[in-house]
Design brief:
Blueprint: E1 2-5, H1 36-48, E2 55-56, E3 65-72, H2 82-91, E4 97-101, E5 115-125, E6 139-140, H3 147-155, E7 159-162, E8 177-188, E9 191-198, H4 205-217, H5 225-232, E10 247-254
Parallel strand pairs: 3-10, 5-6
Antiparallel strand pairs: 1-3, 1-4, 2-3, 5-9, 5-10, 7-8, 8-9
Length: 264
């Protein structure tokens, strides 16, 4: 499945129980708090008529959006035409979630292990006034930004590096080396889009990279400081974490052959 969603009203992708700290309405017995995975899973079950194991290729945090999340489930209700199944599931979903595509997969397909690369976009509204009608879809930065400096800095992220300085503490990964295939800064006033493609990412890695690039655009760091930050392998060496509401999971590419484990 390929799924698009506006993450504003959800506590991220991953199904979560209602912990004592949860301040929203108590979910029904056996259900979790509002997440994308929980919401889509219930819609699928209502169509196929049996329990499913519903798995996503990537986890997104609360408030983060997606244009092309990949997910999978198994069903024996194969007599339902795929587009008919897609339309039936969409009819049971809220307006901020859409199943864009359903297609069959090989019997040994694993939506997590078969990922080859992912691309994220981060949207910044760079103008004096905030974007009133979509404030939850872009990070407002009114500061004059040096776009050329941000572009030069972004190029230094490409390649294989240890991104320990760009990961939230407690990420739980033994290996913090990741490969960035592309990191681009595109500006068409007032929209500034940062696109980042990689084979895998650490917790908050994209948002810390974006926060650091914005600091460079504001003149608080030199573009070349990216190299020093990577070498430091210390979270305190890099810039702040950008807020979640400007981040979009743009697409996920899957292999068509024997899988290799990919960190999400």
């Amino acid at each position: 499945m390929t799924i698009a969603y506006r993450g504003t009203e959800y506590h991220g992708w991953q199904t979560q129980p209602a912990l004592p700290s949860y301040k929203g309405n108590a979910p029904a017995e056996g259900e979790g708090i509002p997440t994308i995975q929980e919401t889509v899973r219930k819609a699928i079950i209502s169509v196929v008529g049996h329990p499913i194991n519903f798995v996503g290729a990537s986890r997104t945090d609360a408030g983060v959006h997606a244009k092309g999340q990949l997910a999978m489930f198994d069903t024996d209700m194969v007599q339902i035409p795929l587009n008919g199944m897609r339309m039936a599931i969409n009819s049971r979903l809220p307006s901020d979630i859409l199943v864009r595509k359903i297609q069959p997969a090989p019997n040994d397909y694993d939506v997590i292990r078969w990922v080859s690369s992912k691309r994220y976009q981060y949207q910044i509204w760079n103008a004096p006034d905030r974007p009133v009608f979509f404030a939850d879809l872009a990070w407002h930065r009114w500061h004059l930004l040096d776009i050329d400096a941000m572009q030069r800095a972004a190029r230094l992220f490409t390649g294989e590096h240890d991104f320990a300085s760009f990961a939230r503490p407690g990420h739980g990964r033994d290996n913090t080396v990741r490969t960035i295939l592309a990191c681009e800064v595109n500006y068409r006033r007032p929209r500034l889009i940062i696109g980042i493609e990689g084979t895998g990412f650490l917790w908050n890695m994209i948002r810390i990279m974006v926060g650091t690039l914005v600091e460079i655009g504001m003149g608080r760091y030199a573009p070349e400081s990216i190299t020093e930050m990577l070498a430091a392998k210390n979270r305190e060496a890099a810039g702040p974490t950008a807020p979640p509401h400007g981040l979009y999971l743009q697409w996920i590419k899957a292999t068509d052959h024997a899988p290799q484990l990919a960190d999400s």
